[in-house]
Amino acid sequence: MDFEGAFYIKTFELQGLSNLKFTQSLPCLDLVSTPLNGDSTHDLTIIDLGPVVMLRRCNYVPAVEDTVVKQHTLAIQLPIADKTVIARFQNLPGGSCHSPFQMPGARSQWLIPQDLPMLHLHVDRRLLLPMIGLQAKKDYQELCSAHSRKAYDSEALLQAATAMERAMSTAVEYKKQQKEMDSDTLSSLLRDIFLPLIKSDLSEVKVSTRQKILSRSLDHIRENFKQPIRLADLASASSTSVRNLQMVFKQELDISPNKYLQQFRLHRFRGLLAVSSSVTEAAYSCGFKHLGRLTELYARVFDRNPSSDLSVKAGSVAEVGSFFNE
């Protein structure tokens, strides 16, 4: 893919960017975000360079995020360059798939907490791989294989986050000066991000039993939310008891399994309203059977009726460059 010097910078800070608009702003990922309480708002800065997209974001409600990386994309999710924040990041709960590094088609599943600034990098691997070489590619694949964030070298994460923040600042300066960023500058910025990572060592850290239970539970909800799900069914699918399942959700997410299921369905319903022909169609597609209760719940969480969001065509809140084109 050819690099294009023109780029876009979009900032949504202190604007109450909703969870729905946030998920729509990241077409480089298949992103399912479930706020653990009500709706979530975000601060978000997007720098779109075509084959490279960098983001800084902060959630104002904790949310479980399940992402699948799109074709041709390499993805990195890191905290900001602060040792205390990195320590929090490495110990966050998640499922068994929660690496901060992903190859095309890879899944990550983890809790993004409230008030933890995060950095995201999405780069077209067809641009990156010739730049870093075959051995570096193999090293990056190894990084993607670890299933616990505790396995990653905190100093390497700090160096990469520092380099990513510097890359975003550089892009902003180019934009202010109305200058085009040449491919050599971009290549140098990317190497500074990737090289500390691919040269770092991984520690042997096993996935905990609680992580396994949580991962199976979240998977089961995602795959079966259109159908009735009893607590006993969810516990069976997670290979644990009902009591232990409730304890895991409380310890890891500070929410009950049934409350999480309700939140998951509610936010899927909100997304479907934008592309459905009726409220009833969207409701049944998300496992809701009682429209009266659903309308009341929707109004309480989103401060509006479902019909207000019906047939509002979902559009990206950000301009995007050639990175998202085949």
Number of strands: 9
Helix tally? 12
Helix content: 40-55%
Measured between the Cα atoms of the first and last residue, the distance is: 10 Å
Biggest sheet: strands, sense, closure?
A: 6 strands, antiparallel
**Spatial order of the strands forming the largest sheet:** 1-3-4-9-6-7
Chart the SSEs and their pairings.
Elements: E1 8-18, H1 19-24, E2 29-35, E3 41-48, E4 52-59, E5 63-69, E6 73-79, H2 83-90, E7 101-102, E8 107-112, E9 118-124, H3 125-132, H4 134-145, H5 154-176, H6 183-198, H7 209-224, H8 231-237, H9 242-253, H10 257-273, H11 279-285, H12 291-302
Antiparallel strand pairs: 1-3, 2-5, 3-4, 4-9, 5-8, 6-7, 6-9
In short:
This protein is α+β, with helices and mostly antiparallel strands. The protein is 44% helix and 19% strand.
What does this molecule look like?
The model is unreliable at 1-6 and 312-326 (pLDDT under 50). The strands form 2 sheets. A 6-stranded antiparallel sheet has the order 1-3-4-9-6-7. A 3-stranded antiparallel sheet has the order 2-5-8. It folds into 3 domains: 8-203, no CATH class; 208-249, Arc Repressor Mutant, subunit A (Orthogonal Bundle); 256-319, Arc Repressor Mutant, subunit A (Orthogonal Bundle). The protein has helices at 19-24, 83-90, 125-132, 134-145, 154-176, 183-198, 209-224, 231-237, 242-253, 257-273, 279-285, 291-302, and strands at residues 8-18, 29-35, 41-48, 52-59, 63-69, 73-79, 101-102, 107-112, 118-124. The chain has 326 residues and is of the alpha+beta class. It is globular.
